[in-house]
Amino acid sequence: MKKEDIRAQVRARKTMLDAYERTEAARRVFDSLTSLASFTVAERVLIYNSLPDELPTREFIDRWEGRKTFYLPRVNGLDLDILPYERTRTHLGAFRIEEPDGEDTTDVADIDLIIVPAVAYDRRGNRVGRGKGFYDRLLSRARALKIGVGYGFQLIEDGIDADPHDVPVDIVITDGHGIIKVRR
Fold first, then answer.
1. Do 68 and 45 contact (CB within 8 A), yes or no?
2. Do 170 and 125 touch, CB atoms closer than 8 A?
3. DSSP assigned state of 144
4. What would the pLDDT profile of 129-141 be if each residue is shown by its tens digit?
5. Strand pairing class (98-100; 90-92)
């Protein structure tokens, strides 16, 4: 299936979710995430601030803040800068996403675990993003374990045609399929 078709299919399905379904899906996904040993040992976690149509991350961040050091991405031209998260130091940035303030950027190589948003994933860890390549450029420089999270319908069973520049995730977690460890 072409990436544009996947984006349209997932976008349509997301519009059918109500607030309760979003909250419950996030609870199941993040409970699964916290059961992983890799999460337990990770100290520095890069996560995203969710857009309204994405699996909500706010409650998860609030629950673990203080026990993990969270980092958020900030759009910088064609790339993403990584900055430590502090609730009082954010602003509405590019694409109307809450982004961290400051100049204390962190190298992605110093991150222990990356929680990756996407429009869709497959069982090989391939992902469809929003089409700008921000995360592919970032993930290409990362050594950390990459975990994709989403709703069950965001897992494309037929597979995703990956481009040479696409960077797959190592694990996919959805509310409908649980933890999928990618084998390469």
1. yes
2. yes
3. S
4. 887 889 999 999 9
5. antiparallel
On the CB side of 66, CA atoms within 13 Å amount to 2
Answer for the pair 54, 11: CB distance below 8 angstroms, yes or no: no
Residues across the chain = 184
CB 103 within 8 A of CB 130: no
Given pLDDT bands bounded at 50, 70 and 90, which one contains residue 92? confident
pLDDT at 64 over 90: yes
At 54 the three-state DSSP class reads coil
**DSSP H or E run through 120:** strand 120-121
User: CA–CA separation, 69 vs 14, rounded Å?
Assistant: 30
**What is the token pair recorded at 145?**
């374990």
Q: Count the helices and strands in the chain (H runs, E runs).
A: 5, 11
Could you write out the three-class secondary structure of 27-60? Answer: HHHHHHHHCCHHHHHCCEEECCCCCCCCCCCHHH
Q: How many whole angstroms separate alpha carbon 160 and alpha carbon 165?
A: 14
- Quote the pLDDT of residue 184: 65
Burial of 159 (0-12, 13-18, 19+ CB in 10 A): exposed
What is the structure's pLDDT at 118? 94
